[in-house]
Structure to design on (871 residues):
C-alpha cells in the first residue's frame, strides 16, 4: 500500500515536472511554431538567478518565484528584439539561431561562473509514508504546476492579451488584419515563455545540480512533451504531460530512470507516427 | 460495356462546417475534353485535389476505369495515369526547364529515353531556347508552360489543367488552346478556366460547379445561355 | 554536359587531394598526421549531414546519433571479433537499421521539418543519457564492457583486411581515413548525378509536384536518411580507429551543434562546403582549446548566429554566386543580382 502511494506520488510529480519544464517552450511553440533550442539554457539561467540571489541573502521563495522568472523574462525580451525578430517567417533559421544562442549562453556562463556545481538547499522538509521517506517539495511542485496551468488558462480565457494570443495561434495573418501588431505579440510571447521557463529553472534550483550545462538534462523531455502535445498551448501541454509523465514514471519505476526516458521517447515516436500534429492537433484542434 | 475513364459518385469533402465539394457525380468518357467552370470558391480546385489524392474525400468515391482510387495517395494516382497542372504553378524552382521535364519523363522511362522525350516536348512546346534556365527565374506564363510540359512528359492518360491560360498573353492563350486540341487527339482532359473566350475556343461539353455542387452539365452553347449560369457565374464575373 | 564537366573537376580535385594524402607523411610530423586523421574522419561525418540536409532537404539535428552508434558498434565488435573488417561493416549496418526505424516513424508519419529536427536532436540526447548510464559489469556485450561515462578504452584499431595480426600504423590509418573521405565524396557526387540524386533534389524542391508525377517522396526520403546514417556510422568507425577510444560525449549536444555549424558555414547544397566548414571549425576549436580567454561553445554559438543572420547560404554557395555574377557582368546578359540576394 505504501509503495502504491509512493509510486502515485512519483507519477504526480513526474507529470508536474513535465508541465513546469515544458510550459515556456509550449507557449513559444504554440504561438510562433518554432522550438526554442535555448530552452534548456533559459532553465539554467533561472536556476543561476535563484542560487545567486539566495547566496546574496535574498529569501529563497522570493528568489525562486519572482527574481528567476523576471530575470529570464527580460532575457527573453532582449533575445527577441536583438535576434529572433530578424528571422520572422524563417522557422528553421530561427531554430538554428536559438541553438547558437544556447551555445553562447552555456559558454558565457562557463566563462563567468566556471564549470562547477552550485546549489541551494531545499526550503521544505520531508514526510513519512510507512517505511518510505518523501520530500514535501514534491507536492509543492505539483501545486506550482497546477497554479501555472490555471494562470495560463485564466490569462488566455479572460484577458485581452489572451484573446490576441488565441487569435495569433489560430491565424497569424488574420490577427495582423485585426490591427494587432504581430511584432509586439511575438516579443510578449517570447518574454512570457522565457519567464515561465525561468520560473521552472528557479523551482529546480533546490533539487538539481546547477551547472552551465544543466539544461541538456531537461530539454529531451521538454521537447518530447511539446512535440507530442502539438500546438495548442494548454490542452496539448496538459494531455502530453499527463500521458508521458505517467508512462515515464511507471517505466522508470519498473526499470531505471534512463530506461524510463527511452521508453518515453519510443512512446512519443509511435504517437507522432499516428498523430503527426501531436495530441492537440487531433483532439483539441483550435482549442487553447 | 466498359467502365468510363473517370467517374465520381457522391464525392464530398467538408472542412469543418464548410462543404467545399458537395455530392458530385461526374463522368468522363475516354478521350473526352471537358471544361469545368464556376465562380471563385465553387470547389473546382478542391475537386481536382480530390481526383489527384491531394485531399481525401469525406464521402463518396472516385473510380478510374472502374478501379476505386478514392483515398489513394497522390503518387499512386499519378501512376494510374492522371497528370495535373495545378492552379499555382508547382514546379522544381531550383532546377532547369530541361531537368523539370526530365524528372517527369524518368518515372516511366530509362534515363536515355527520358532525355529524348524531354527534347521532343521542349521542341513541341517551343521551350528549347529556355531549356537551360532555372525555372525559378522565369515569368509566370513561361512557368505555366513548363508545368504543362512536365505533365506531358509524365505521359498521363487523363490530364487535369487548372487555369492553364491564367497570366498569358493573347497569343499564348491561342497557342494553349491549340495545344489542348492537339493533346485531346490522344488523351482525355478536364480543363478549369475562367476565361470565357478560351472556353469558347476549346469546349464541347461544360460542367458548371456552384457552391461545391454540379449546377448544370451540357453543351457549351446551351450552358453559356442558361439563365442560372448567368446568375451565379457571368453576373458575378461582370460585377467583379 | 554540365554535369560531366562538374564531375571531371571533382575527379581532378580528388586525384590531387589523394596524392597529397598519400605523400603527407613525408613532410608532416606524426602529431600533425594524427590531427589530420581526426579532421578527415569528422569531414566524413560532415558529408553525411551535407548530403541529407543539402540535397535531401531532411533537417536532422541529431546526426551524432548515427555517428555515435557507429562508433560504439565498431568498438564492441572490434573487441569481440579482434578483427576490424567485420566491425567496420557492422558500424555501417547498425546505424542504417536504426535510421530505417526512426526514419520510418518520422517520414511516414508525415511530420514537419521543425518536428523532425527536434525529434532527431532528442534521440541523440537520449542516447547520450542511455550510454552514460551503462557503467558497471552488468552492461557488457560479449567481451566488451560499455563502461558508462568512462567510455571504452583500448579499442583495437584497423587491421589489414583478412589479416588481424597486421595492425595499421598511424600513417597508414591516416591514408585510409583520407582516402575514405575522398571515396565518400566521389560516391556522393555520383549518387547526386544519378537519377536517384535528381529525384531527391526534385523532392526537396517541391514534394507535391514530385508526388503528382508518381514518385513516392516518403521512400526516397527514407533511403536518403538511411544513406546519411550509413556514412555517419562509417565516420564513427574511422573516429574510434583514430583514438582507440570512445565515450558518451560522442552523442553530446555540443557535437550535434558542431555538425550543423559545419554544414551551415560551408553551405547547404554543396558537398565541398561541409568539408571546408568542418576543417575550418575543427582547426578553430583546436586553437580555442589552446588558450583560456574564450569558451569554445561561446565562439561556436556566436559563429552560428552570425552565419544564420548574415550568410545564411554558407561560404561555398556565396563564393559561387559571386563568381557567377562576375561572369554575368562580363557577358551580355544583365546581372540578376537582386533576385539572388533576396532568396
Amino acid at each position: 500500500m505504501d509503495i502504491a502511494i509512493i509510486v502515485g506520488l512519483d507519477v504526480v510529480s513526474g507529470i508536474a515536472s513535465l508541465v513546469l519544464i515544458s510550459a515556456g517552450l509550449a507557449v513559444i511553440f504554440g504561438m510562433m511554431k518554432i522550438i526554442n533550442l535555448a530552452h534548456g539554457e533559459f532553465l539554467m539561467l533561472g536556476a543561476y538567478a535563484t542560487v545567486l540571489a539566495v547566496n546574496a541573502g535574498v529569501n529563497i521563495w522570493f528568489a525562486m518565484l519572482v527574481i528567476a522568472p523576471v530575470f529570464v523574462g527580460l532575457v527573453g525580451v532582449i533575445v527577441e528584439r536583438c535576434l529572433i525578430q530578424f528571422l520572422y517567417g524563417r522557422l528553421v533559421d530561427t531554430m538554428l539561431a536559438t541553438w547558437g544562442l544556447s551555445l553562447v549562453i552555456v559558454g558565457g556562463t562557463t566563462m563567468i561562473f566556471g564549470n562547477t556545481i552550485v546549489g541551494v538547499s531545499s526550503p521544505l522538509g520531508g514526510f513519512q509514508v510507512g517505511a518510505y521517506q518523501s520530500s514535501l517539495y514534491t507536492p509543492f511542485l505539483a501545486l506550482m504546476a497546477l497554479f501555472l496551468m490555471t494562470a495560463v488558462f485564466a490569462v488566455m480565457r479572460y484577458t485581452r492579451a489572451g484573446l490576441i494570443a488565441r487569435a495569433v495561434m489560430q491565424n497569424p495573418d488574420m490577427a495582423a488584419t485585426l490591427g494587432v501588431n504581430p511584432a509586439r505579440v511575438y516579443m510578449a510571447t517570447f518574454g512570457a515563455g522565457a519567464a515561465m521557463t525561468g520560473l521552472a529553472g528557479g523551482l529546480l534550483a533546490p533539487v538539481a545540480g546547477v551547472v552551465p550545462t544543466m539544461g541538456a538534462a531537461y530539454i529531451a523531455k521538454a521537447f518530447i512533451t511539446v512535440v507530442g502535445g502539438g500546438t495548442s498551448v494548454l490542452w496539448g501541454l496538459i494531455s502530453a504531460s499527463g500521458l508521458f509523465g505517467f508512462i515515464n514514471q511507471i517505466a522508470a519505476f519498473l526499470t531505471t530512470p534512463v530506461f524510463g526516458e527511452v521508453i518515453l521517447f519510443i512512446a512519443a515516436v509511435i504517437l507522432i507516427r499516428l498523430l503527426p500534429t501531436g495530441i492537440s492537433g487531433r483532439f483539441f484542434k483550435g482549442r487553447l | 460495356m466498359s467502365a468510363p475513364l473517370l467517374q465520381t459518385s457522391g464525392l464530398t469533402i467538408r472542412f469543418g462546417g464548410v462543404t467545399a465539394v458537395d455530392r458530385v457525380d461526374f463522368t468522363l468518357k475516354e478521350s473526352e475534353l471537358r471544361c469545368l467552370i464556376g465562380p471563385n470558391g465553387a470547389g473546382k480546385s478542391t475537386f481536382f485535389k480530390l481526383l489527384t489524392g491531394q485531399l481525401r474525400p469525406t464521402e463518396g468515391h472516385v473510380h478510374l476505369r472502374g478501379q476505386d482510387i478514392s483515398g489513394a495517395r497522390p503518387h499512386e494516382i499519378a501512376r494510374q495515369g492522371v497528370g495535373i497542372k495545378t492552379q499555382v504553378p508547382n514546379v522544381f524552382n531550383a532546377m532547369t526547364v530541361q531537368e523539370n521535364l526530365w524528372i517527369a519523363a524518368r518515372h516511366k522511362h530509362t534515363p536515355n529515353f527520358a532525355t529524348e522525350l524531354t527534347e521532343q516536348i521542349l521542341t513541341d512546346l517551343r521551350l528549347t531556347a529556355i531549356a537551360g534556365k532555372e525555372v525559378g527565374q522565369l515569368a509566370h506564363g513561361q512557368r505555366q508552360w513548363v508545368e504543362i510540359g512536365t505533365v506531358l512528359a509524365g505521359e498521363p492518360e487523363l490530364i487535369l489543367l487548372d487555369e492553364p491560360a491564367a497570366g498569358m498573353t493573347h497569343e499564348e492563350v491561342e497557342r494553349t488552346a491549340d495545344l489542348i486540341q492537339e493533346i485531346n487527339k490522344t488523351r482525355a482532359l478536364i480543363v478549369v478556366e475562367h476565361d470565357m473566350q478560351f472556353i469558347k475556343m476549346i469546349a464541347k461539353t461544360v460542367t458548371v460547379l456552384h457552391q461545391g455542387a454540379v449546377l448544370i452539365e451540357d453543351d457549351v452553347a446551351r450552358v453559356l445561355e442558361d439563365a442560372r449560369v448567368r446568375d451565379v457565374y457571368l453576373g458575378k464575373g461582370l460585377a467583379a | 554536359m554540365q554535369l560531366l564537366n562538374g564531375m571531371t573537376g571533382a575527379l581532378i580535385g580528388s586525384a590531387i587531394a589523394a596524392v597529397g594524402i598519400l605523400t603527407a607523411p613525408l613532410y608532416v610530423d606524426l602529431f600533425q598526421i594524427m590531427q589530420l586523421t581526426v579532421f578527415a574522419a569528422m569531414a566524413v561525418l560532415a558529408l553525411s549531414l551535407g548530403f541529407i540536409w543539402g540535397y535531401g532537404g531532411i533537417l536532422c539535428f541529431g546526426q551524432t546519433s548515427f555517428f555515435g552508434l557507429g562508433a560504439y558498434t565498431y568498438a564492441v565488435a572490434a573487441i569481440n571479433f579482434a578483427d576490424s573488417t567485420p566491425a567496420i561493416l557492422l558500424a555501417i549496418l547498425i546505424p542504417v537499421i536504426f535510421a530505417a526505424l526512426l526514419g520510418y516513424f518520422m517520414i511516414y508519419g508525415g511530420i514537419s521539418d521543425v518536428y523532425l529536427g527536434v525529434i532527431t536532436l532528442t534521440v541523440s540526447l537520449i542516447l547520450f543519457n542511455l550510454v552514460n548510464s551503462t557503467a558497471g559489469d552488468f552492461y557488457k556485450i560479449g567481451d566488451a564492457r560499455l563502461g558508462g561515462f568512462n567510455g571504452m578504452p583500448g579499442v583495437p584499431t584497423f587491421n589489414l583486411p583478412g589479416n588481424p595480426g597486421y595492425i595499421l600504423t598511424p600513417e597508414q590509418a591516416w591514408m585510409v581515413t583520407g582516402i575514405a573521405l575522398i571515396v565518400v565524396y566521389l560516391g556522393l557526387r555520383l549518387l547526386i548525378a544519378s537519377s536517384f540524386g535528381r529525384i531527391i533534389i526534385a523532392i526537396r524542391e517541391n514534394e507535391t509536384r514530385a508526388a503528382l508525377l508518381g514518385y513516392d517522396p516518403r521512400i526516397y526520403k527514407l533511403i536518403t536518411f538511411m544513406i546519411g546514417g550509413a556514412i555517419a556510422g562509417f565516420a564513427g568507425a574511422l573516429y574510434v580507429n583514430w583514438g582507440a577510444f570512445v565515450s558518451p560525449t560522442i552523442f553530446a549536444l555540443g557535437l550535434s551543434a558542431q555538425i550543423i555549424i559545419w554544414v551551415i558555414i560551408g553551405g547547404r547544397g554543396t558537398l565541398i562546403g561541409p568539408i571546408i566548414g568542418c576543417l575550418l571549425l575543427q582547426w578553430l576549436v583546436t586553437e580555442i582549446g589552446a588558450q583560456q580567454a574564450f569558451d569554445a561553445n561561446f565562439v561556436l554559438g556566436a559563429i552560428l548566429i552570425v552565419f544564420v543572420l548574415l550568410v545564411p547560404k554558407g561560404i561555398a554557395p556565396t563564393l559561387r554566386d559571386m563568381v557567377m555574377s562576375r561572369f554575368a557582368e562580363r557577358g551580355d546578359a544583365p546581372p540578376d543580382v537582386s533576385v539572388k540576394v533576396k532568396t
In short: The domain at 2-111+136-283 of chain A is CATH 1.10.3470 (ABC transporter involved in vitamin B12 uptake, BtuC). Chain A has a mean pLDDT of 87.
